[in-house]
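BACKBONE GEOMETRY TOKENS
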Amino acid sequence: MKRTVILFVLSIIFSCQSVKKNNLFLEKKISVSQLKADVDFAYSKLQRFHPNLYWYITKEELDYKFDSLKNSLSKPLTPNEFYFQLSPVIASVNEGHLRLRAIPRQYTKAEQKAFKTKKPLFALLDYRILDDKMFVVENKEDVGQIKKGTEIIKINNENVSDLIKKYRKLYSSDGKNQTFQKYFMNLSFFNYYTLENGYLDSAKLVTRYNNKLENVSIKRQKKTEKEVIVDRVQPKITTLQKVQDYDANSKTYNRSFKFMSPDSSVAYIKVKTFSATLAKKFYKETFEKINHAKSKYLILDIRDNLGGSLSEINTLYSYLTDKEFTLIKPPEMTSRTSGMYQNYFRGQTVFSSVFSAFGYPFFLAGNYLLSSKKEDHYYFREFASRSTKPRSNAFKGKIYVLINGASFSASSIISAKLKYEKRAVIVGEETGGANDGTVAGVNNTVTLPHSKLSLPIGLFLIRPNIEFENQSRGVIPNFLVDPEFENLSDSEDKILNWVLDDIKFRNSIIERKK
């Protein structure tokens, strides 16, 4: 018991020291020569590991951007000041998975415990960022009596439009795509703001409604005792919830299924992310129900799905086709040893790393053996690049796939394959992810030696097994339906309604022919 107490006290002390060390480093100014060395280091690692670095930008253009950045560095910067200088250059590669990561402020266990008793400050309102402006779309708790449609002009004396322009330089979509940016900015704005300012307990806003300016203060609200207890207690998750990949924090399902017509002729599957968690079981049970109901139409909704597991989309595709298929081409790498550099130990504790170390030699050997060389190119044998047979109860009716600008990565791969094979009608908005593939799969996350910023570099060029369009665009829908992202007042689901209307029209034609 005494040893346990001593170890507990020591762990707290070391944890506090680590937090203090991290936060002190954030204030440290890094010399110009060291900053320039980090720029060279980042570019050298990109050239070494990124399998298609000059896909959307020429080598001459990218060389110029890195050289220009080095020439512009004239004074010492803190790590995150440097982040805002280097990140736009990394983003100019125009490959959506490739983003430099800043160093967030860390908090002690006591501070983290205090945060859990309060509600997130900026989550008190729901926002929509349109171009360079931010609007309130919902105010559930009537904070400051701010009305729906109110524009937030300033946050703590900083112009929101300036912040949006600043943050927009930190990321990109794939190639020439223009639909992804608006979704990602809405997802990431307050992540970037918190990175710069930390977790705030209050903020002063300047708002505009009906051309009237107002100063509004918002304050982080305390949770009720009941809310704290509910958050603390982990609810028991049923088998059904596990299969649907239930998220207890948001109280939502990652996967869901329902029939959208009384006669079960229209089946609907929504997948928010391809997490792979019990995916095989979910699709097996779902398509058994669809097959039993003899559904004629299937709507696959992968809007706002940022991607995920290749294994899951391969499983899903096997229920959508009646012929043997190969989902993706063999992933391409820069060398036969690239796969050996993926993040094997990253994210593990010291304790778990000790046990993982025993498997490391097998990991290295396996990655090498799964690699091959053909005509001066290096490839990796990924499961989804092998031939797969369709399921016996695969859906044989008409398929609609719903997409938008936040359909990214794996969502784009399965959409591109279904469109190319003419197996589904693609409806909605151009995907944020490229039609012709992406650089992802696994990462080698390198740490810049002086600033300690981290740069995850995708090791695999993953491309759907199709003939490429070479347009540097996302998956273009067969039927473009504007989701009217800019409309703050209309909650109508225009893309889904278009599909339901099309099904009604088709059914009416069938009825007339009888």
The longest helix spans residues 2-27. The CA atoms of residues 50 and 459 lie 6 Å apart. Residues 118-219 form a domain with the Pdz3 Domain fold (CATH 2.30.42.10). The radius of gyration is 25 Å.
